[in-house]
Write a structure and sequence with these properties.
alpha+beta, Immunoglobulin-like, PH-domain like, 2 domains, 10 helices, about 30% helix, Putative rhotekin-like, Cytokinesis/Rho-signaling, HR1_rho-bd, PH-like_dom_sf
Length: about 425
């Protein structure tokens, strides 16, 4: 397949692919050199995660290319209103186990052990949990990781995949088989087309084992060459689930698992977790600027204010300095799912105006905004319509339940989630319902 060199957004995706390729090459070298079982398990897990990200990025790149081709052919992209992005957070993942009485209570039979972890994917954002060693002394597989997906659509599909690998007790470096470094590294010096071809072939072949039938990161699993099949521990997809916005609820909830393979792991067929979501338009300013607002019924009673559209309110302050000093707003205009908006063109006397009609405490209330520059009127009109759409349609389920995801402190913003220890993660990620 031929991949030309792309510009703009394509370059950023290519950079991400190259970064994952380098990480995959490093994990391959580590796997070839490691002499400890724990090191080999972690390196194999990293290989699988990197390959999942490479395939997801390649899929995104293909979609972008298809859109560009359609645009060049004269077909305009859809003019439908695009909803704002949101945050989705999953935490406290638990998977119960169902042991036989003779194994758990009487401690009979051979003691098996396996290493398990979860792969979480939402669009091109993919995270892996920490490894958990499982034997018959455990009743639940507990993942203490907290994962936040920062830019998701309201129609998101969050796929949770459970992988396992049987643990060999008599581990030795020779048990891992012959070592060969992946050819991904050699592709980095060539053109973008060579890089992507090498990344795709490697991601589709190396270390990405699946036994499921559904589409997802683990569904690409062509037969691997003998030398790659012997490269380190192998993880198998044993169960998976897909969560959507309808699964977002208050508290700790149970979800069905689809069992993908007949494994030694005695899964019960369910998983429990906390899933919360929050639209970015509810916590970030959508638009701000100078406005004139009519106060009361007097046509001549106007007030110059500094307006900020955020969440379900248009906050009107006396000045921008009042916003920075966190003073109370002069006026709060509710923006709800049933809010009506109407724009009037400039006439010989008045500037362009926006009329907002909404309900407050069960009563119909109307507000009038005046802007003196046509471009400002258009910006505010589009921003208000967009916010009403986000509240009334796109994120209606979440708005009605009002789930809040509090953000990381600045010191943690640049630290990958999987690198945070359990206690740090529990302190900096807080979920609350208001």
């Amino acid at each position: 397949m031929f991949f030309p060199t792309y510009l703009g957004q394509d370059k950023e995706v290519l950079k991400q692919i190259e970064r994952e390729v380098r990480m995959r090459e490093g994990a391959s070298k580590l796997l070839a050199a490691c002499s400890q079982r724990a090191q080999a398990l972690e390196a194999s897990k990293t290989l699988l995660t990197c390959n999942a990200r490479i395939l997801a990025l390649l899929s995104q790149l293909q979609k972008m290319r298809n859109a560009q081709i359609l645009q060049r052919a004269g077909r305009r992209p859809s003019e439908d209103t695009v909803p704002c992005k949101g945050k989705v957070a999953l935490s406290d993942l638990r998977i119960p186990l169902m042991w036989k009485d003779s194994e758990y209570f009487k401690n009979k039979g051979e003691l098996h052990r396996c290493a398990v972890f979860c792969l979480l994917q939402c669009d091109t954002e993919i995270y892996d949990t920490g490894l958990v060693m499982v034997d018959r002394t455990l009743t639940d597989i507990c993942f203490e990781d907290t994962v936040i997906f920062n830019e998701v659509d309201p129609g998101f599909h969050l796929r949770v995949e459970l992988y396992s690998s049987c643990v060999v007790e008599d581990f030795s470096p020779g048990a891992l088989g012959p070592r060969r470094v992946s050819r991904l590294g050699g592709s980095l010096g060539g053109s973008s087309g060579k890089k992507i071809r090498a990344a795709f072939e490697s991601a589709a072949i190396c270390g990405y084992v699946s036994s499921g039938e559904d589409a997802g990161p683990g569904s690409v699993s062509p037969p691997a060459p003998p030398h790659l099949s012997a490269l380190g521990p192998k993880y198998n997809l044993v169960a998976h689930a897909t969560l959507t916005v309808e699964h977002v609820q208050e508290g700790f909830k149970t979800h069905d698992l689809s069992l993908a393979a007949a494994e030694w792991l005695p899964l019960y067929g369910n998983m429990c977790c906390r899933l919360v979501a929050q639209p970015l338009c509810m916590i970030q300013p959508v638009i701000s600027g100078q406005l004139e607002v009519k106060l009361g019924e007097d046509l001549d009673c106007w007030e110059n204010v500094y307006g900020i559209l955020r969440g379900q309110s248009l906050l009107c302050y006396e000045s921008q300095e009042d916003v920075e000093s966190e003073d109370e707003p002069l006026l709060v205009i509710p923006i709800k799912k049933d809010t009506l908006l109407c724009a009037f063109e400039r006439d010989a006397i008045h500037s362009q105006r926006l009329y907002i009609s909404t309900q407050c405490h069960g009563e119909d209330v109307s507000y009038t905004l005046t802007l003196h520059i046509p471009e400002d009127t258009q910006r505010w009109n589009e921003a208000l319509w967009q916010q009403i759409f986000n509240i009334s349609e796109a994120w209606l389920f979440i708005i009605n339940n009002t789930y809040t995801v509090l953000s990381l402190p600045p010191a943690y913003l640049n630290i990958p989630l999987r690198h945070l220890d359990y206690f740090s993660a529990r302190q900096v990620f807080i979920f609350c319902v208001t």
